[in-house]
Structures are given as structure tokens and as C-alpha cells.
Design brief:
With about 60 residues, the protein is mainly alpha-helical. The chain is about 80% helix and about 0% strand.
Length: about 60
């Protein structure tokens, strides 16, 4: 279960990288961070969800210009 959640975080982070919201270095750091056993994945999932919302808002603002 944990491995599947980590993989999903990775997919979502890569999508944010492709949208230029995260840098390659940030995604690499996140990949190492989420694999640490003491990390609470729910917190990382919430942070990624927030980043997704922000990226979507920024995209909408760019399109409105």
C-alpha cells in the first residue's frame, strides 16, 4: 500500500514538473523524501494536492490574459 501511494505521489509530482510548477531538482528531492520511513505520506499527498490546485489556478490566469 505504501509503495503504491509513493508511486502515485511520483506520478503527480512529475505532472507538476511537466507543467513547470516543480523543477526536476524538486521532484528528485521529493522522491527521496517520501521513501523515508518516518514520513507521513498523507502530509505529502496534501501538499501535492495543494500544488495541483495552485498550478491549475495559475494556468487559468495565464489563459485569461
Amino acid at each position: 500500500m505504501r509503495a503504491a501511494r509513493i508511486a502515485e505521489i511520483g506520478r503527480r509530482a512529475n505532472a507538476l514538473r511537466k507543467a513547470s510548477f516543480y523543477s526536476t531538482e524538486e521532484v528528485k528531492w521529493l522522491a527521496g523524501y517520501v521513501r523515508q520511513p518516518q514520513v507521513q505520506l498523507v502530509e505529502v499527498e496534501l501538499l501535492v494536492a495543494n500544488a495541483e490546485r495552485l498550478a491549475e489556478e495559475l494556468s487559468k490566469q495565464e489563459k485569461a490574459r
